[in-house]
Amino acid sequence: MNKSIKYAALAMLTFTVAATSSCSREEDDIWDQSAAERMDAAKVQDLDILRSAPNGWEMLYFATNEERGYNFLMKFEGDSVTIATRNPKTNDAYAEQTSYFDVLTDDGMVLSFPTYNDLFHIYADPQPDHSVPSDGMGSNGDYEFKIMSISNDMIYMRGKKHGVEIYMYPLEENVGWEQYFNEIYDLRSRLFNEKIDTLWMTLADGLRFSIANTTVSKTVNNVTTTTTKVFGVDQVGQLLPLGGDAVTQTSKMSYVMTRSGIRWITDFPGDTLSRTPVREFVLNDEGTFLVSTDFGGEECTAGATIKAPSYTNLFKKRTLVWSIDEASVSGNIATAYQSFVNGYNASIIGVTYNLYNIGFKFSGFAHSLFITFGASESYAVDAVLYCDLVEKEDGTIGFSFTGNTNEQGGVMKQQITQLEDLINVLEASSFRLSSASELNPSQLLLTDVNDENNKMCVNIE
Fold first, then answer.
1. Do the domain assignments include residue 186?
2. Cα–Cα distance between 66 and 229 in angstroms, integer?
3. What single string gives the DSSP state of each residue in 122-182?
4. Do residues 203 and 301 both lie within one domain?
5. In terms of C-beta density within 10 A (0-12 exposed, 13-18 middle, 19 or more buried), how is residue 245 classed?
6. 130 vs 215, more confident
């Protein structure tokens, strides 16, 4: 997207007209005004555009690359502006407040919010919470913005003090303000699962970057506190090229949610790696992963993607626990599964304890089938049957049970003979892993390639 720098071009255009030997009458009329008159006319035009959006404007706001981007809605009427938002600083509840705005003529046009608005100025306040000690920096945000280009379709600005790029777009008339924020929150929950703590961004040229949770440190009164930022929740992450040096090549980046995806605070990776950068990502047509657009200028490119790690790597990830969705089990697996459940309910264990869960998890040294049972979910234990996860050349996986168990697993194998039938069915299958989402595969479908009637879904707990 080309950024037409409206006011910076003013001086260049003045020189061009003066140097031209013959000008049209319209050009003569335009430049017959003084500089002050032209600035006043530009201010009137900008105010008219700001007030013209019948349902207000969407603002995609950033403070720094260490803090999430924020969504605001703004309705300009007269000299008042109604600002609405929903984010952690409002306890994730919708809130709106009215204050004043103005367009100033200060080396170009500046959109200013001169009166304190609790929802907006908190990001520019060096001590936003006056009840606790502060580092005197706050979020390092802006409340005045140099208008670089403006039209009825988009306003492009830079923070007057810190220079961060800010964009505004008119909100469609049929979209309610609370509905807008509900859609933003719903989309983020569909895109990301905080338990999938690493994603992969692949640029169009094939260079890959891991996207992981990060930490942010602040020092107040000589005491430093470090906070973990979860990429899919806090909208800040650290990016590292595959095989890169974590000390020298890690980049910290924040993003803002859009109604179709995410947008980085700035172009990435920028000039340091001499790569074609990206900034904005939207869901692909199938809604399964994020793909970049050409937003951000002539240098930005489409074709980059953001996806989760491979399904196999997720399935064996040590921090994840996968529970079998009983309603999804079919074929021979369903027969053996239900036979085990019936055997459990008829056993001595079943008389005393309820059966809560059956699934898979990867410990420090082995994969395992676990069976959770107990007097209540608060007082439950796992019967664990250890197995090897076999990754086959055709991309499928298999289970090879070693015979090793924990104490509860050994008792269960002895008392419930039907458990051996379930183990045998799982060992006889070669499973293809698939998911409805390549970005948030929080549910995996395991399908036996030898008999596609044999399948089951597992969900991240």
1. no
2. 9
3. GGT-SSS-TTS---S-TT---SEEEEEEE-SS-EEEEETTT--EEEEEEPPTT--HHHHHH
4. yes
5. exposed
6. 215
Strand-strand pairing, 236-241 and 223-229:
unpaired
The verdict on 112 and 70 lying in the same domain is yes
Angstrom distance (rounded) from CA 356 to CA 162: 54
Residue 133 has pLDDT above 90, yes or no: no
- Is 453 among the domain residues? yes
| Span between the terminal Cα atoms of the chain, in Å | 42
pTM of the model: 0.87
Residues 325 and 433 in one domain: yes
**Confidence class for position 14, pLDDT limits 50, 70, 90:** very low
In this structure, the answer to whether residues 35 and 176 fall within a common structural domain is: yes
Q: Are residues 240 and 342 in the same domain?
A: no
CA torsion sign for 195, 444, 341, 327 is positive
Domain boundary among 290, 307, 324: 307
Q: How confident is the model at residue 228 (pLDDT cuts 50, 70, 90)?
A: confident
Q: Which residue type, as a one-letter code, is found at position 41?
A: A
Residue 3 domain flag = no
pLDDT tens digits for range 78-112: 999 999 999 999 999 999 999 999 999 988 899 99
What tens digit of pLDDT does each residue of 34-62 get?
Answer: 877 888 898 999 999 999 999 999 999 99
The number of distinct structural domains making up the chain is 3
Range of the domain at 374: 312-460
